[in-house]
């Protein structure tokens, strides 16, 4: 992988982040080398967490291959109805290449070429691993720094605060909106 100035974190001296690129991927499992992305959603927000733009798509794959991966994963094997719905929705999805191009175009529309693109989300490091593996051209546009809501959760709960109640839908767009709400919760006086 070629390292760009953005990836190495070389921000201009007076550059301050003004936007976040929230991303959530649904995958057949957690191993980026083996498992596949089945669904993606992205939301651009300002730092006050107001939505500017939204993108979502299903990834089209060979159904038998994806079903075998779902069946082999303990998480998904207990959620067969959810896995079936994802497989059904994939039929109307796009190729991985087209989605990668869509996401790059999405970033180009909402981020200036000189702006760093910071990923945000829950356990975003794992989504980033999948992006690096399956969408390397997209990865080149992303900054290496990320905002991980899980860090806020660990700190807040570790200091005796209540944990944010999640619906656990495991669908990309609803999961992002829930992550944004969770960050609001942990950064307020709850």
If you had to describe this structure to a student in words, what would you say it looks like?
With 190 residues, the protein is α/β, with parallel strands linked by helices. It has a domain at 19-148: Nucleotidyltransferase, domain 5 (2-Layer Sandwich). It is 44% helix and 17% strand. It has helices at residues 63-72, 74-77, 80-90, 96-110, 124-134, 136-141, 149-158, 172-187, and strands at residues 19-27, 37-46, 51-58, 119-121, 146-148. A five-stranded mixed sheet has the order 3-2-1-4-5, sandwiched between helices. A hairpin with a 4-residue loop joins strand 2 (37-46) and strand 3. The radius of gyration is 17 Å and the shape is globular. The protein starts with 18 loop residues before the first strand and ends with a helix.
């Amino acid at each position: 992988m070629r390292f760009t100035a953005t990836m190495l974190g070389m921000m201009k001296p007076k550059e301050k982040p003004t936007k976040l690129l929230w991303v959530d991927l649904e995958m057949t499992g957690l191993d980026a080398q083996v498992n596949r992305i089945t669904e993606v959603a992205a939301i651009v927000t300002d730092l006050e967490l107001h939505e500017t733009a939204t993108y979502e798509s299903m990834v089209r794959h060979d159904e038998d291959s994806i079903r075998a991966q779902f069946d082999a994963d303990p998480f998904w094997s207990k959620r067969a109805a959810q896995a079936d719905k994802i497989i059904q929705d994939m039929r109307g999805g796009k190729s991985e290449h087209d989605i990668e191009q869509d996401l790059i175009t999405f970033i180009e529309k909402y981020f200036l070429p000189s702006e760093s693109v910071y990923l945000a989300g829950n356990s975003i490091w794992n989504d980033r691993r999948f992006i690096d593996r399956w969408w390397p051209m997209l990865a080149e546009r992303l900054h290496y720094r990320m905002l991980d809501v899980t860090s806020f959760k660990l700190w807040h709960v570790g200091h005796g605060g209540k944990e944010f109640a999640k619906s656990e839908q495991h669908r990309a767009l609803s999961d992002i909106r829930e992550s944004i709400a969770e960050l609001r919760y942990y950064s307020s006086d709850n």
